[in-house]
Amino acid sequence: MKKISIYLLLLASCFAAFSQSDISNEAKYWNYRNNLKQRFMYYTKNPDIKGSHLPVELIKIDSKKQTTAYWADATWWQGHYIAMLALEYKRLQLQGLPTDSTLQELKWAVKTLIRLDKYAESYWNGKDTLDGFFLRDDVPADLNTAMNVDIIDSDYESKLGDTTTLSNAPSQDQIWACYLGFALVVKLVDNQELVDDVTSLTKSFIHTMNYTNNKGGKSWEIINPTTGQLIQKSGDIKWLQHGHVLAGEYITNQDLHFGKSNTTVWKTVWRFVQNNCLMNKTGNFVWYGIYCCSVVGNDWGRGADNCYDWITKQGQKIQKMRPDLQQEIIFPHLPLIAAILHGYEGNDPIPAQIYEQYLNSAPVDGGYKIRTNNTIESSQAPWHSLSLFCPWHLNDYGYFNMIDYMLLYNAYHIVYKMNVPEFEVFYK
Question: Model's pTM, two decimal places?
Answer without folding.
Answer: 0.94
